[in-house]
Amino acid sequence: MIFRRFISSIVTVGTLLTTTPLCAQDGAASDWKALVIGNPSRNAPGAFGDSFHAAQVLKEAGLADVTLRRELGADAMAQALQDVEGVPRLVLYFSGAISVQSTGPVLMGKGGGDARSAVAPLLDRLAAAGTRELILLVEDCAGGQGMGGRLTLPTPPAGLNLFMAASAGPERSCSADTARMTDALTAPGPAARLTDRLAGTWTATVGTLSPPRLNRGGGDVTTVPTSAPTLTDQGAIPLVQGAPQVTLIANDTIRLTPAITPVSLTPAAQPGGGGEVGSLGGSATGTPTAVRDDQTVIFVAPSASQLAAVPVAEGLPEPSIIIGLIDGIRGTFGTVDDTPPEVGQTEITYENLEARNAMRDRDPELFASLVAGGAFDPPPTEIGRALQGELARMDCYTTTVDGIWGNGSRRAVDRYFAQLNGVTPITREATADLFRQILLEGDVICPSPVRTAAPAGGRTSGGGRNSGTAPRRPRPSAPAPTRTPAPSGGRIGGGGLSGVFR
């Protein structure tokens, strides 16, 4: 089966689509970078597997640079986000616990988090550093029922094109009926638009067409279709019903394609039931103009009266994510064998040697990325035992695999690296870094250790004896001879007993 991934969602903050040419832009798929973060915790136990499968989907979508990081503490989390600041085109996926602080929603690290991973300041830093296109996917239902509801709709900075998706979204909690964004994203199936694939999840697009403002006083947007979540925003936040599409194809280019046909904004309208539009009154702004594929698009800032937050309405154009081939255009893309690997389980553990080797053989780059990100790390309490098992499998460790790390284990590390022609170990101690290094270097066969014969002779000179400290071993008593019957009178004669008395 041939798989294609089309990820679309390039949108522009607070702008209005016109027909004045600005530029036509193409770019290689390798221009996109993806950072996938999974931080499992008591409140988000599914984050470990979610991030693994999301990384696979993005890799298959044609993104050449996909980084998977899991179980990051607060400092490592902040550093990982800082490392992608300024990446022009970024896909950021997060699965884990979400906290609410004064700065808004915070993507939590393992064991805690702080304002460095808050969503709103993160968007500001990305835009200031040069990021222009961002796809933000937040799995806020990685835990049990009752979680979620901690996201709020951010106000993206000017110049940052944003598409955002989540499972529950603002002010909704996770339940048995909640459609998880990660499950919808990674599920097999026929070609489908993004809104079809993420049916029931929460999505928001910010950009090219600004509907009229809903004057609600406090800024609460409550007049929405029953199928959409109720959003509470901090002011006028533009959401659009359609957006240009960016198509990501392996070994191909990314092309900006208009996906909407703007029309006059007269009359102004508010959402009605079933996606219909009801009249709110307003003035005409703009001229009905069709945008064709061969036209270039310019984005300009709208007036304040045109800004509002509205839900995605049924029947209007949406960004698209398409998996598979579209009928009639096979010749455009050619035929590529993208058959997924045959792995017999949903997640590869550090003990599954067969599955690890299958992934290494099929996709060495993805395997190296997963190893470096800690995907195969054993639990901290099992690192010593796991290292001994790996070294024993290669005949480098020859004693009991018990997890007790001593000089015998360290000598086994030395024997392993002696077969690698000059490669030195990061450490000789039982750490996750050493485990990752051995996985990346691969298997060797250690020669059997040479046993040194014991020196001839029995007793050594007394110079090495630690006299006066070791207790002296008592000599065994000589066996007592058969007792001679005592003479009458009951006395013990001088020759009646022999031996040593103590």
Oligomer: single chain
Q: Work out the number of β strands.
A: 19
Q: Point out poorly predicted stretches.
A: 1-29, 207-311, 459-472, 488-498
H/E series: EEEEHEHEEEHEEHHEEEEEEEEEHHHHHH
Please give the largest β-sheet.
6 strands, mixed
Q: What does the overall shape look like?
A: elongated
Distance between the termini: 90 Å
Radius of gyration: 35 Å
Short note summarizing the structure:
By secondary structure, the chain is of the alpha/beta class. It is built from 11 helices and 19 strands.
Describe what you observe in this structure:
With 502 residues, this protein is of the alpha/beta class. The protein folds into three domains: 5-263 and 285-333, Rossmann fold, CATH 3.40.50; 341-376, no CATH class; 379-451, no CATH class. 20% of the residues lie in helices and 17% in strands. The protein contains eleven helices and 19 strands. It has helices at residues 47-60, 74-83, 119-129, 181-186, 194-197, 330-333, 353-362, 364-372, 383-393, 407-418, 432-441; strands at residues 5-7, 16-23, 26-28, 32-39, 65-70, 89-96, 98-101, 104-107, 133-139, 161-166, 202-206, 220-221, 231-232, 245-246, 253-257, 269-271, 277-279, 297-300, 321-323. The strands form seven sheets. It has a six-stranded mixed sheet with strand order 5-4-6-9-10-11. A three-stranded antiparallel sheet has the order 3-15-14, with no helix packed on it. Strand 4, helix 1 and strand 5 form a beta-alpha-beta unit. Helix 7 packs across helix 8 (364-372) and helix 9 (383-393) packs parallel to helix 11. The chain is elongated, with a radius of gyration of 35 Å. The N and C termini lie far apart (90 Å). Residues 1-29, 207-311, 459-472 and 488-498 have low confidence and may be disordered.
